[in-house]
Design brief:
This protein has six helices and no strands. By secondary structure, the protein is mainly α. The radius of gyration is 19 Å and the shape is elongated. It comes from Salipiger bermudensis (strain DSM 26914 / JCM 13377 / KCTC 12554 / HTCC2601) (Pelagibaca bermudensis).
Length: about 180
């Protein structure tokens, strides 16, 4: 007979699941926008639209990540199945921590790049405009951080999605259902 935890795995609270999947949608839409918007040969209207979307969604992602961290501190993650080895638990914790950190670095470096470069953040200027003075060297540094951090975030996303798929499709051990469905 299956134990109660096997029959009904512990799940993240609804708010955590909602914040997770909102973050997923926004991150997975900003990555291609960011990669496409810097390609040569794009029409100016398309490029402007992609830049507008990308730079104004970054702060939304930052807010969602901060909210997720606060919710996680107030309502810890449900326990992992006992079937996970210690290295699997450490890997999961490392990937989650690095995802949070890299998302914050990406958002902050993007905001700094835009503001230090003297560009507008159309939606956000009334709230955070002028927080960073115009500085070409700071803009270049933030641009480099943002550029290299994209490789880290993409690798972490592949690791996270791969592990989720393994747990949901192959192991079927309840790990995936802790975060699914979104609400």
């Amino acid at each position: 007979m299956a134990s109660l935890s096997e029959a009904a795995p512990a799940r993240y609270p609804r708010l955590s699941r909602l914040l997770h999947w909102l973050t997923v949608i926004l991150v997975l839409s900003t990555i291609p926008a960011g990669l496409i918007m810097v390609q040569e040969g794009l029409s100016r209207p398309l490029q402007n639209s992609l830049f507008l979307y990308h730079k104004n969604i970054g702060p939304v992602i930052l807010i969602l990540v901060v909210l997720r961290i606060v919710v996680r501190l107030l309502k810890p993650a449900p326990p992992l199945p006992a079937s996970l080895s210690r290295p699997q638990v450490v890997a999961a914790e490392a990937v989650h921590g690095l995802l949070y950190l890299t998302l914050i670095v990406m958002a902050l470096s993007g905001i700094i790049r835009v503001q230090a470069g003297g560009f507008p953040m159309e939606f956000w200027d009334p709230f955070i405009g002028g927080m960073v003075a115009k500085s070409e060297s700071l803009a270049d540094t933030a641009k480099a951080v943002h550029h290299y951090a994209r490789y880290v975030i993409i690798a972490l996303i592949f690791a996270h999605v791969g592990a989720a798929a393994m747990h949901g499709l192959i192991k079927r051990d309840g790990v995936f259902s802790r975060m699914w469905p979104p609400v």
